[in-house]
Amino acid sequence: MNRKQLVEQIFQKKTFLCVGLDPDIRKMPECVQQEEDPIFFFNKQIIDATAPYCVAYKPNLAFYECLGVKGMTSFERTVEYLQKFYPDHFIIADAKRGDIGNTSAMYARTFFEEYNVDALTVAPYMGEDSVTPFLEYKGKWVVLLALTSNKGSHDFQLTEDKEGERLFEKVLKKSQQWGNEDNMMYVVGATQGQMFQDIRKVAPNHFLLVPGVGAQGGSLQDVCKYGIIKDCGLLVNSSRGIIYAGHDENFAQASAEKAKDLQQQMEVELSKIG
Ligand SMILES: O=c1ccn([C@@H]2O[C@H](COP(=O)(O)O)[C@@H](O)[C@H]2O)c(=O)[nH]1
């Protein structure tokens, strides 16, 4: 999916919500745990219930890989289900890959050829040759970690060099020599609040994938105040806050209500940019 198509979806559906598909069997209602493929069953109900309120889904690979082949089968079935029944929804594989070029090329093949998702999260730490193999796929997106939502983001990302430039700013600047606004997004945590102002100074037009609303306590309004741009430029993710909203057989309905609540707040924010 290209930028124009993504932006069209956002303004048509009045939402820039990304639902995180981070299924943990231990947190699912009992009725789901008895299913043959509980993860796929759970995801399918969540997707059917939340699809009207979001434009993207972000399965995080950790929640599938931890179950070995069975988990990866659930991941594959989830992606295929989305592609078949919700082809207008953007799919981000949150796998945070990146290695020497030769190996990154294989990761790119996995996610962009085998699974054919729209976007993949990539860690910038190993530099240019670890990122560019992902950028060779037309119509696909690299979502580069810039300023993450966790406390540990302070350990490296916020450290300054002698000129006062912070590491996340260096990542934003340097990576713009490799990719562009049509094939590269950045991860910026919703918990970073006012920092979105600084991000926008260096990346004024790039889309940002923003996790951290919901369970991590980030504010959607702050993200929008400092981060929204004329074509929105934001995909705001919530995982646990949506998918574990309910605890019984009506869990999907509870998720839909949470997603709808975020959608309505996003509609207000979108109306401000006309
Ligand atoms: O900086 C980051 C980068 C990635 N994530 C991922 O997003 C979701 C957030 O889940 P919640 O349940 O809504 O907190 C999860 O998959 C993280 O691994 C992030 O949170 N922060």
Automatic annotation (TrEMBL):
Known pathway:
Pyrimidine metabolism; UMP biosynthesis via de novo pathway; UMP from orotate: step 2/2
Identify the enzyme class: lyase
Reactions catalysed, semicolon-separated, are: orotidine 5'-phosphate + H(+) = UMP + CO2
| Molecular function (Gene Ontology), one example | orotidine-5'-phosphate decarboxylase activity
Q: Identify the keywords attached in UniProt to this record, alphabetized.
A: Decarboxylase, Lyase, Pyrimidine biosynthesis
Do you know which InterPro entries this protein is assigned to?
Aldolase_TIM, OMPdecase_type-2, OMPdeCOase_dom, RibuloseP-bd_barrel
Please, one GO biological process term? Answer: 'de novo' UMP biosynthetic process
**What name appears for this protein in its UniProt entry?**
Orotidine 5'-phosphate decarboxylase
Upper classification of the organism: Bacteria, Pseudomonadati, Bacteroidota, Bacteroidia, Bacteroidales
Q: Where is the active site?
A: K96
- Species of origin reads Hallella mizrahii
Q: EC number(s)?
A: 4.1.1.23
* Record domain Orotidine 5'-phosphate decarboxylase: where: 16-255
Similarity-based family = Belongs to the OMP decarboxylase family. Type 2 subfamily.
User: NCBIfam families annotated for this entry?
Assistant: pyrF_sub2
